[in-house]
Amino acid sequence: xxxxxxxxxxxxxxxxxxxxxxxxxxxxxxxxxxxxxxxxxxxxxxxxxxxxxxxxxxxxxxxxxxxxxxxxxxxxxxxxxxxxxxxxxxxxxxxxxxxxxxxxxxxxxxxxxxxxxxxxxxxxxxxxxxxxxxxxxxxxxxxxxxxxxxxxxxxxxxxxxxxxxxxxxxxxxxxxxxxxxxxxxxxxxxxxxxxxxxxxxxxxxxxxxxxxxxxxxxxxxxxxxxxxxxxxxxxx
Amino acid sequence: xxxxxxxxxxxxxxxxxxxxxxxxxxxxxxxxxxxxxxxxxxxxxxxxxxxxxxxxxxxxxxxxxxxxxxxxxxxxxxxxxxxxxxxxxxxxxxxxxxxxxxxxxxxxxxxxxxxxxxxxxxxxxxxxxxxxxxxxxxxxxxxxxxxxxxxxxxxxxxxxxxxxxxxxxxxxxxxxxxxxxxxxxxxxxxxxxxxxxxxxxxxxxxxxxxxxxxxxxxxxxxxxxxxxxxxxxxxx
Lengths: 236, 236
Description:
The structure is a homodimer.
Chain A: H1 2-10, E1 21-26, E2 31-32, E3 37-41, H2 46-57, E4 61-66, E5 77-81, H3 85-96, E6 101-104, E7 111-113, E8 128-134, H4 138-145, E9 150-157, H5 161-171, E10 176-181, E11 193-194, E12 196-200, E13 205-207, E14 211-212, H6 213-227
Parallel strand pairs in A: 1-4, 1-6, 4-5, 6-9, 9-10
Antiparallel strand pairs in A: 2-3, 7-8, 10-12, 11-14, 12-13
Helix pairs in contact in A: 2-6
C-alpha cells in the first residue's frame, strides 16, 4: 500500500517536517441564532483530522484548530477547540506567524446571524427571516498576510469543480488548493473516502483516485513537501 | 438510590408497560439551506434516549424516532432515524394511532428555510437573508388528533419557565409537560443532568431536583404510569 511505502521512505531516518510547525483547521463552525439554535454545515472534520495526523507523523509540531466534531484527538497533535467563525479566526491568527504550513480544511461559515438573541426566540404563526452578515474571510486574510507560510486551502464544490478551485487559489493567494466535488459518491462530507485534485500555484495538477481520507492526507502532505523542497533542505 | 427502589418495585414481577407501545422522539432536527449548510439546535438527544431506555425497562414496546445525534442505540428499543422536521412528522404519524404513551422530547425546528437550494450557494460580499417558513407543529397536531394516547411534551425555556410550560400544555392539549430551564447550570442541552418540573393536565406538580438524565427518565415515566393508573390496570 502506498501509505506504507511513504512511511518506509520517511521513517525513521527522515522526518521532513521535524522542527516545523503545521497548523490545520478542521470541522464546521456553528453560528448561533439564539441560546438554542444555530447555523452549521455537514463537515465531519475527518479530512482535517487526517491531515493533522499525517503532519505529526512527518515530524511536525502540529496544531489542530477544530470546530465541533465527533472525532478522537489524533496522537501527537495539540487540539484547540472553537465554535464560531470568529473564534476560528482568533485561534488561527494566534498560530499563523511562525507556521511553515497552514492547511485550512475547516468549513467555516461565510455568514452568521446579524444579531444573536440572548433569549430563545418564541415562534409565531408567521414566516420569518434570519438577517445574515458576512464573517471575516479567514483564507483571504491569511493570503493577504502571507510571508513565508505555505498556505493550503480546500474547495468543496458542487459544480465546475476545477475552475472554481483554480479561481479560489488565485483570488486568495494560496500555494495549493485541494478541490473536491462534494456530490461525488466516492467522497465528500461525512464520507471516509475522498476524491480530490491537488492544484499548486505553479500550475501542477495531481488528480487522485478515491482513497481513504487518512491515506489521502499522507499522499497530499507528501506531495506538498516534495513540491516545496522541504524533503531536501531538511536540517534534521 | 431511588432508581434501584423503582426497579426493585417493578421487576421482575411487574412490568407496567408490558404489551403497550411507547413512542419517544429525541434529538434536534436539521433543516437544509443547501447541500452543505443547515439550521439546527443544541439538543443532544440524551433526555429522549434515556426516556426510551426507561420505557423499555418498564416492559414497553418502544419506538425511538431520533434526529441526528452521537449516542448509542438503547437496548431493546427500535430506532427510526430522521433528519428534518418533515421527516420527523412522517415518522411520528406512522406510529401514533396505536401508541399508549407518546413522549415528544425532540427539539424540532419551528422554522425551515423557505427554499432548499440544490447547489451550494456562492457567497458574495453582501449581507444576505434566509427566508424561513413555519414547519408543521407536530405536538399541536398530535394534540388535535388525540384519542386515548397519553401525550407528553417538553418545554425548553430560558425565561418564565413554569408559566410558559403550563400555557403550552393547555394550548397543545397535552396530558403532561416536562419543563426545564435550559439556562440552569444543573441541566439543559448537552448536559448529563437535568432539573425539571413535571406538570400534569390535572394540575399536579412534581418539581424534581438535579438528577442524571437516565435516573430522571425512570422517575418521570414512573410518575406518569402512576398518575395514569397504568400500574394497577395492568393485565400482565
